[in-house]
Amino acid sequence: MMKRSIVVSSLILYLAVQLSAAASDTGTLTGKIKLTKGRKNENSIVYLKGVKGPFVSLDQVAKMDQKGKTFVPHLLPVQKGQEVIFRDSDAFSHNVHIYWGKRSLFNQVQGPGQNSEWLPRRTGEYLVLCDIHREMSAFVLVFEHPFFAVVDHQVSEEFTLENIPAGMYTLVVVREERGDLKEYEQEITIKANEVNTVITEL
Ligand SMILES: [Cu+2]
What we know:
Blueprint: H1 2-24, E1 26-34, E2 44-49, E3 62-67, E4 70-72, E5 75-79, E6 84-88, E7 94-100, E8 103-110, E9 115-118, E10 124-129, E11 137-143, E12 148-151, E13 158-165, E14 167-177, E15 180-190, E16 195-201
The structure holds copper (II) ion.
Residues 66, 69, 94, 130, 132-133, 136 line the site of copper (II) ion.
C-alpha cells in the first residue's frame, strides 16, 4: 500500500511541473494601430503568422449582421471550428452568398429576423455577398489559431493578444481597401512572462 501512494504523489508533482512550464513560456502582446490622415476609420484585424500549435479553441459563436443594407462587421475574424451566424436585422430579405475564390460555397436567402449558420471548413479568406443588394460585401477570415483581434478605430487603436508562445512572429494588420483586403506586415518578438508592445502606423 505504501509503495502505491508514493507513485501517485510523484505523478501529481510531475503534472504540476509540466503545467507551470507551459504557462511560463508564453507572453502577452499589446499594440496600437495608428491610422494616418486620409485613412478610413474602419476596423482593422490583427493576427500573428507563424505560431505553432496545439491551440486553445474559441468556442463562442461569431456573428455577422445584415443591417441597413450593410454587413456588420465588414471584416470578421474567426478560428477554424467557430460557427458563424448571419442575421437579417432589416425589414426586408437578404441572402448570404459565400465564396472561396470564385467558388460558391454557401447560398441562403433569409427574411427579416431570420438567421443562417455556416461552419467554415478551412482557414483563409472568404468573400460574403448579398445577391439582392449588389453593394453589400464583407469578408470572413478564418485562422488556425486564436491569436487575432479586431481593432475598432472608432473606439480605440489598441489591442491585446495573450498566452502567445515565446518566439519570433510576423504581426499582420489587415485592412479593407477598395473592396479588397490589404495586409501590412511587421516582425515582432514575444518574450515569455512579459507584456511585449508594438506600435504600428499605417
Ligand atoms: Cu441584401
